[in-house]
Amino acid sequence: MALLFPPVSLVEIPRTERLRSCGLVDCDKRTKFRTNCCVALRASSSMEKKVVWIWTENKQVMTAAVERGWNTLVFSSHCRDLAHEWSSMALIYPLFIEEGELFDSEHRRVATFFEISCPEQLEQLQPKDEQAENVIVNLLDWQVIPAENIVAAFQSSQKTVFAISRNPTEAQVFLEALELGLSGVVLKVEDVKDVLELKDYFDRRNETSNLLDLTKATVTQVQMAGMGDRVCVDLCSLMKPGEGLLVGSFARGLFLVHSECLESNYISSRPFRVNAGPVHAYVAVPGGKTCYLSELKAGKEVIVVDQSGRQRTAIVGRVKIETRPLILVEAKSDSDNHIAYSILLQNAETVALVCFQGGKGHRITAIPVTSLKVGDEVLLRIQGGARHTGIEIQEFIVEK
């Protein structure tokens, strides 16, 4: 209850500040998009702030939402007493539904409702409609295609478009439609779990905006290790040069294993694939966690990282486990050469680590493990080594 507040009168708060807290006033100039500019859509989708309003009659849901910073609540017209009661317990911004429109506590219109159950109703939803600055759509039939059509139609509009979501999965569909997504969702739920799951989704989205600290380490040993069961991870996303997965024999140090996106004379590129290593190895997954490569399967998420530490989540589409010859690579970081880090990888020219190479420009490139030699510099993600079910914990541990 740390974020709950003593009774506060909404009248004492300036109108602009109240509307800004509700997400009704755009503090910064809204980005304009061109219909033919997919790059602009992609770049802005991760930066635009999404707005969440909560529609509930459950006190526990309200409390969980307010504690997570979502304090704009939607009420039916007959729930004014409930809104007044909750306003005495927490700092909330109540909005009321009346005859297809949404009003604040001073009866100022802030949004217009549209129920859409057929293409004809969707066509009636126009960005130039001046009824209200905010639009709330209730998609009663199809969801994905109508949401994409709305995103495309409103991408150059100043209006904020919300969709009513009845669970976190629906909310994710609306927030990611055409990559850009709708501006916000109205989460209509009566279960606290739904609020927690949606907040977890936003935490994972925000995580990708943080750069991972990658450390330069020097290769100290490269040797043949025999046969083993190695894992190819095929993603539902394409990777670019410099991108790959963080993998290692020890969770304390994960190597940046390059994707198979580079062209060669003998085999076509597979920019969706990382030949990641044997089944025992750790791989970085969202939430600052790791899991074993053997645990990956279709539908799970992993972290894709580039040489600058930029990260994004990707969905696993397929995992292939096959017996192949392996190479052992060991390295030590420049900051602490007493700790060794290791990884085993398939002995093949298409398997590469992202390495720091000297020379003009100090370019970072991928070098095949078949060409790797002692003294080469590779990129590592150094972190806590003790893990319980993939979660970092504080305990004494020795791994070698």
H and E order: HHEHEHEEEHEHEHEHEEEEEEEEEEEEEE
What best-fitting shape do the alpha-carbon axes yield? elongated
**CATH domain class of the largest domain:** Alpha Beta
Number of helices: 8
What is the count of distinct domains?
2
* Share of residues in helices: 10-25%
Distance between the termini: 45 Å
**Biggest sheet strand line-up:** 1-2-3-4-5-6-7-8
CATH architecture identity of the largest domain: Alpha-Beta Barrel
Low-pLDDT regions: 1-47, 386-390
Query: What is the beta-strand fraction?
Result: 35-45%
Q: What average pLDDT do the residues reach?
A: 82
Rg: 25 Å
CATH topology of the largest domain, anyone? TIM Barrel
Reported for the largest beta sheet, the result is: 8 strands, mixed, barrel
Care to count the β-strands?
22
Structural class: alpha+beta
Can you describe this structure in just a few lines?
With 400 residues, the chain is α+β, with helices and mostly antiparallel strands. Helices cover 18% and strands 37% of the residues.
Structure description:
InterPro entries: DHQS (IPR002812), DHQS/DOIS_N (IPR030960), DHQS_C (IPR056179). One of its GO terms (biological process) is aromatic amino acid family biosynthetic process. This is 3-dehydroquinate synthase. One of its GO terms (molecular function) is 3-dehydroquinate synthase activity. A hairpin with a 7-residue loop joins strand 18 and strand 19. The protein is built from 8 helices and 22 strands. The strands form 3 sheets. An 8-stranded mixed barrel has the order 1-2-3-4-5-6-7-8, surrounded by 4 helices. The chain has a 6-stranded antiparallel β-barrel with strand order 9-16-15-10-11-20. The protein is of the alpha+beta class and 400 residues long. The protein folds into 2 domains: 198 residues, TIM Barrel (Alpha-Beta Barrel), CATH 3.20.20; 178 residues, no CATH class.
